[in-house]
Amino acid sequence: MKKLAIFSLNMLLLYSCKQEKKEDTTQVVKIEQYSIEQFMDNENAFSNGFSPDKSTVLMTSNRSGIYNMYTTKSNGGEFIPVTASDSSSVYGISYFPKDDRILFRMDGNGDEIFKIFVKDSSGIKRLTPEKNVRALFRGWAKDGKSFFYGSNERDPKFMDHYEMNIDDFSSKVIYENKDGMQYGGMSEDRQYIALSKSINTNDNDLYLLNTKTNEKIKINENISGNSPEDFSPDGKSFYYTTDDNAEFSYLMKYNLEDGTKEKVIEKDWDISAFYFTRNGKYQVMFTNEDAKTVMEIKNVAIGNTIDFPSIEGQQINSASFSRDESMALLRVGGSNTPTNSYSYNLETKEYNKLTDVLSKDINPDHLVTSEVVRFTSFDGLEVPAIYYTPKQASIENKVPALVWVHGGPGGQSRQGFNSILQYLVNHGYAVLAVNNRGSSGYGKTFYKMDDQNHGDKDLKDCVAGKDWLAKQEIIDADKIGIIGGSYGGYMTMAALTYTPEEFKVGVNIFGVTNWLRTLKSIPPWWESFKEALYTEMGNPNTADSVRLRKISPLFHTEKVTKPLIVLQGAKDPRVLKVESDEIVEGVKKNGVPVEYVLFEDEGHGFVKKENQIEAYGRILKFLDKYLKGQDSEVINDGKTESTPVKPES
Asked: How far apart (Å, rounded) are the C-alpha atoms in residues 485 and 455?
């Protein structure tokens, strides 16, 4: 199971059945078509925890057009602004355990060099170094007197483990990471630190470091994918997941005293996370079931599963608990419903809605529920995908379609609301989000199938997805394009380069186009993962460079014959701006229609609303012109009408 995907688009987070051809009983449904401004008016808001007295909740929201912090009453009510940034995004971490000070983080317009700050009655104070040092919060000490964080202050390549006292904000190093390890948690008494060392993008060795003796104990015996999860509340055990001798990750328990192990839970899907609440009353487990997050919470003493209320018939996909474990903050949503936050009292069973994020202009009945389908690829492999069909589509009203490719390598398209996808579907585009071979969540055999094979079999899976779409009775088989971000952007360019007649258009959102440069320019703080990525992709400093050049679209732009739009953030540390600059320049030489949308104040993903509106509005106009054969024109009521035009060849 891939838990770290270097080039992931951060999009993210489906019960499956084989898709059989069905008799079409659909009729054209009249729905309103909403503007990109209306879709981007969907708020993205999430909770960061209760105040010490549980009367208020810290929230992070982009309602101002950029992420800022707010507070709201724990039983719901008005959002009170805490910050008012109009440049860099502000992301809440939490209240302090025993007072109303607030911890938060910021980076520089998407450069991912995060700093940790405190907000108190006197203002804002930066707690970690300002220049070129990355710091990430790692949790509070149980006594609430300090917190832990990782920082590459000592060495840009490695994240050391620090503890900061909250009285005077002095810090000390607990563990110097000189061996390229990845931090995985620490026991309450600070005696044990869980560490892992990547072998490849699936497999890693798991260790426990005894900070008293400096002994490092290897937990796994075989090459396998392992993930540290949590230490038991009594300090006697360590829990981790592994796929040793299995396709999917299961939960193991390691006895710290004698080193014995036992299997705790095994499912038919990956157990993706497991932890205990602060005082050990509850254990929380998440499973990735066919691209859908399933949560299970048990009362440890009694052993019974906690039944949460059914909230508007939607899925509860996460819960975070107050320090006294009496209340929880729930995230609730679905593929056709944006995720909202609720507070829930475990004793009284009462819940309160804290957010209402869907734009007031959008009728929820006009949004589309996705379904899981599976199709057969060129070699007989069954490939899962998530399918969105416009409500206005029918046999008599065939619609164009898009193959959507997730980020990665090793990401996964998942069930969950996505404003961009709903916007495209609302405007009459069917979308097939393909989880091609190499995607996570479907077993380690499937996951490893694209290793050092990118731009070949994974691309053929996408082409097979296009062929599946073409057979659907509601799809206009002559109007199918491909779209994706990051690794998905690479797949877009690979499709236009190596299968130039398969797709009618391509949408490349900050996609890799030169693997040689991208693999050499990995940010220093990912040093511990670099060799693992080289194992999957190839080492650009060895003979692998020949193959990497061969699969890099930048060196084969003369093959591109279909219209292309490229979108890029200038601050992107993962896929450099030059990648998009050069692919645009190269394709333009072919006389092919090329559009380029560049944002100077964005990184790997567009987070500012004004930029999102520009980016995704431009994508729709491009698709309407070159795929659908229409030009979009926004009129006064905010809805979009289309005027037929002759598509350009």
From this structure: 15
**Residue 320 above 70 pLDDT?**
yes
Characterise 64 by phi-psi region: left (phi > 0), alpha (psi -120 to 50), beta (else).
alpha
Those residues whose C-beta lies under 8 Å from the C-beta of residue 494, and which sit 6 or more positions away, are 454, 455, 459, 551, 553
**Helices 419-426/609-623 angle, 10° precision:** 30
pTM of the full predicted structure?
0.90
Q: Which of 243, 236, 284 is nearest to 263 (CA)?
A: 243
Token reading at 559: 């093959």
Q: Is the dihedral of CA 213, 156, 132, 8 positive or negative?
A: negative
Q: What are phi and psi of 257, to 5 degrees?
A: -75, -45
- Amino acid code (one letter) for 349: K
Q: Three-class SS of residue 618?
A: helix
Whether the per-residue pLDDT at 15 is higher than 50: the answer is no
Q: Which helix (H) or strand (E) holds 457?
A: helix 457-471
355 and 341 in contact (C-beta within 8 Å)?
yes
pLDDT tier, 631 (very low <50, low <70, confident <90, very high otherwise): low
185's CB contacts (< 8 A; 6+ apart) are: 193, 194, 228, 229, 230, 231
Query: How do residues 497-556 score in pLDDT, each as one tens digit?
Result: 999 999 999 999 999 999 999 999 988 888 888 888 888 889 999 999 999 999 999 999
> Of 134, 137, 115, nearest to 126 (Cα)?
115
DSSP state letters, 13-37: ---B---------------PPPPHH
The rounded distance, in Å, linking the Cα atoms of 277 and 328 is 11
Coil/strand/helix, residue 578: helix
Q: Is 137 helix (H, G, I), strand (E, B) or coil?
A: strand
Q: What average pLDDT score do residues 331-355 get? A: 96
Residues 491, 430, 62, 95: what is their CA dihedral angle, to the nearest 10 degrees? -80
Confidence of residue 580 (pLDDT cuts 50, 70, 90): very high
To which residue do tokens 């694209």 refer?
450
Residue 492 DSSP code? H
Flag whether pLDDT at 5 surpasses 70. no
Give the closest residue to 532 by CA, choosing from 441, 451, 439, 436.
Answer: 451
- Give, to the nearest 10 degrees, the angle between helix 457-471 and helix 487-498: 80
Rounded CA gap, 364 and 104, in Å?
A: 33
Q: Per the structure block, which two tokens stand in for 612?
A: 């999102």
Alpha carbon separation from 200 to 116, 259, 449 (Å, rounded): 31, 26, 13
Output the pLDDT for position 27.
Answer: 55
CA atoms in the 13 A half-sphere facing the CB of 149: 28
Provide the 8-state DSSP code for 647: P
- Count CB neighbours of 648 within 10 A: 10
Which residues have CB under 8 Å from 625's CB, separation 6+?
631, 632, 645, 647, 648
- 305 DSSP assignment: B
Is the pLDDT score of 640 beyond 50? Answer: no
Tens of pLDDT, residue by residue over 298-317, are 999 999 999 999 998 898 99
Cα separation, 414 vs 560, whole angstroms: 30
Structure tokens at 15: 């019960």
Residue 486 is encoded by which pair of tokens?
A: 């990051």
Tell me what the mean pLDDT of segment 382-397 comes to. 97
Question: Is the per-residue pLDDT at 452 higher than 70?
Answer: yes
| Cα–Cα distance for residue pair 206/184, rounded to 1 Å | 9
Element spanning 549, H or E: helix 544-550
- Whether the pLDDT of residue 137 is over 50: the answer is yes
- 315 forms bridges with which residues in the sheet? 333
